[in-house]
Amino acid sequence: MVSLIIVGFGNVGRSLADIMLKDREYLHKTFGFNSEIRAICELKGALINKNGIDVENLLKLNDISQSSDWVPDKTALDVVKEVDADILVECSWVNKDTGEPAVSTLKAAMNRKMHIVSSNKGPFYLKYKELKEVADKNEVMMGMESTVLSAVPALAAKTTLAGTHIKSIRGILNGTCNYILSQMTQNGSSFDDALKEAKDLGYAEADPTLDINGYDAAGKIVILANVFLGWDKTIKDADIKGITEVTAEKIEQAKKENKYIKHVCTAKDGKLTAGTELIPMDSTLAVMGSLNLVEFETVHAGPYTFIGRGAGGPEAAAGILSDIINISLLKF
Amino acid sequence: MVSLIIVGFGNVGRSLADIMLKDREYLHKTFGFNSEIRAICELKGALINKNGIDVENLLKLNDISQSSDWVPDKTALDVVKEVDADILVECSWVNKDTGEPAVSTLKAAMNRKMHIVSSNKGPFYLKYKELKEVADKNEVMMGMESTVLSAVPALAAKTTLAGTHIKSIRGILNGTCNYILSQMTQNGSSFDDALKEAKDLGYAEADPTLDINGYDAAGKIVILANVFLGWDKTIKDADIKGITEVTAEKIEQAKKENKYIKHVCTAKDGKLTAGTELIPMDSTLAVMGSLNLVEFETVHAGPYTFIGRGAGGPEAAAGILSDIINISLLKF
Predict the structure, then answer these.
(1) How far apart are CA A9 and CA A41, in angstroms?
(2) Residues 6+ apart with CB under 8 A from A167
(3) Residue B187 assigned to a binding site
(4) FRET partner for B248 with CA separation of 20 to 30 A, picked from A84, B1, B3, B267?
């Protein structure tokens, strides 16, 4: 039985609880996996039940503070000190410049010998090395698959492509950018109309600044470079451009040359870049809509390309659950 | 130090030895990985050196029986009984109907508590369940990533996509078929000319029958279905069609409908199929040339698509090496 603390119960946290409930039998049969949630931390308090929270009834509540397990004014840090668990899952709101409060929560959990799994990328594009040192010191695992393209097994390639010798990485790492550029390319939409559609469909945030200025995508290429290429960079080292200067005219001009304009991030030759590029129409990078993609160029066997949905509650939750299952297979 | 026995020293076996030699420092630094090859088995004898074969000098020989480590008339089975090693790597010639001699070698090695890694798919599309039982009984691992699309981490998705709940699988699983159809589609080549080019480029075997009749691709979907969907099927359960009835006219007709003709294998609703299908031009399945592709449809998060080179000596060797490294990370 794997015991969990979940920090953050928005779209991702709820999806995770929902999937673990619905797939309980499948997960037991397929991976010998059984779990219980001992605490769920929110901004204004926490649910705590050391015998396991009743998830089925909890998911019926719109406001989880109505649950009898609710303790007001408990912070995630309080919970980490008081509740024993195997794994802490971090999917709360995070300050993009400091990575807090997640960085402190993750460190405290690892120092209490908990493994951690996070869908928040802030802590890792800001303080990867620091967190890795705490993990190594405590001999615990850091599951961070969902920080880059949700459940697309990009970070897992560290081991799954171990024999290929990865030498550089590029990718289409932001679904909002790709959706906007695809709508402009395929349907002749204006930038503003495509952005509005992306918001309506839930791909873009209410404030999409960090998507369209390239910052979100850049954070992901920083993490990929540090994990795969052994670099020690932060987002401040990246050359970041967004998609706000793409016009209908530029897209039409590209199409005349049998090319698409795509927002591409690259880690190569010591440099981290994010910005628009002209991509041949028959390239594997020519994926459309909100799909994301990562491509590893290798020394021995050419490129390997992984494509999938890079955002969304169930998608991020599925990636978190993959990490949890893998930790449970290796450690328990 | 991970010790190896390699069975088969053709293109794949040589590539493996070559990569491990060239990447020695990289592998040590990146994965803490060190290896030595204690035996290499060929049809007419074996190289044996319990202190580790001198690979650098061996690779200079065209005929490895010239090495001072050569013992004539030793079979792989003899070697498994006489030489201690952590992992046996199987990349020899295999009978497509019986899986021999590889099946016997693999079983003997596992019964001697060696982990196994194989790029041969015959043993697994014929006798997966039997081999799995021997592995489980002896508590050893079976690395079989290279049996399906070489180093493309298709089988690794069992754990890397664990949280997504895979419900069906489809793929473009034979590079020769994809190359031929791509040449007919993009360059208007005839079937025969495209097949000849595929042979010249080394994608197709001298006898390409098993490629173009769909048998090779079907073997891979059988393995995928057994691993991911918990089925217990052999290649005899698959409905197999090839590409020999594709004509220039059919391809032109498809293009008029904005579609490509592709050779697609599917495992869905209890059925295994291999044959040609019409694929929309903007589908993720529309990969060209000799590239291969596998797509997992999931319950929680849509499809995940992996693309890469599915054949070739270094490509298969890179997949074998990924398996070896992963076993070493988990077991030693």
Answers:
(1) 7
(2) A297, A298, A299
(3) no
(4) B267
Q: A327 to chain B nearest CA, in Å?
A: 10
> Can you tell me the distance from the alpha carbon of B156 to that of B162, in angstroms, rounded to the nearest whole number?
10
**Residue A152 distance to chain B (closest CA, Å):** 7
Distance CA B275, CA B173 (A): 11
Rg of chain B, C-alpha, whole Å: 20
H-helix or E-strand spanning residue A275: strand A271-280
Tell me if B52 is assigned to a ligand binding site.
no
B151 → closest Cβ in A151, A152, A161: A161
Name the residue in chain B with its Cα closest to that of A297: B308
Q: How many residue pairs bridge chain A and chain B with CB atoms within 8 Å of each other?
A: 158
Determine whether A220 is an active site residue. Answer: yes
> What share of chain A has pLDDT > 70, as a percent?
100
What is the maximum alpha-carbon separation in chain A? 64
Q: To the nearest 10°, the Cα dihedral for B196, B201, B203, B206? A: 50
pLDDT score for B331: 84
- Give the residue from A164, A168, A175, A119 showing the smallest Cα distance to A319: A119
Instruction: Tell me whether residues B301 and A309 touch, CB distance under 8 A.
Output: yes
Whether B91 and B218 share a structural domain = no
Average pLDDT, chain A: 95
Which residues of A are documented as binding site for L-homoserine? 205
Both B107 and B193 in one domain: the answer is no
**Cβ B160–A161 below 8 Å, yes or no?**
no
Question: Does residue B242 have a known ligand-binding role?
Answer: no
From chain B, pick out residues whose CB is under 8 angstroms from the CB of A320: 163
DSSP 8-state class, residue A36: E
- Cβ distance B157 to B296 under 8 Å? yes
On whether both A178 and A128 belong to a single domain, the answer is no
The residue among A112, A92, A4 whose CA lies nearest residue A50 is: A4
Retrieve residue B217's tokens: 């691709």
Given pLDDT bands bounded at 50, 70 and 90, which one contains residue B218?
A: very high
CA–CA distance, B48 with B86 (Å, rounded to integer): 15
Residues 6+ apart with CB under 8 A from A98: A126
DSSP state, A245?
T
Count CB neighbours of A227 within 10 A: 21
Shared domain for B162 and B304, answered yes or no, is: yes
Quote the CA–CA distance of A179 and A193 in Å, as a whole number. 11
Task: Check if the beta carbon of residue A217 is closer than 8 Å to that of residue A263.
Answer: yes
Contact A312 B321 (CB under 8 A): no
Helix (H, G, I), strand (E, B) or coil at A1: coil
Query: pLDDT tens across B242-289, in order?
Result: 999 999 999 999 999 999 999 999 999 999 999 999 999 988 999 999
CATH number of the domain where residue A13 is located:
3.40.50.720
Domain that holds residue B80: 2-149+313-331
In chain B, the number of structural domains is 2
Give the C-alpha separation, B155 to B171, whole Å. 13
Q: Are residues B303 and B322 in the same domain?
A: no
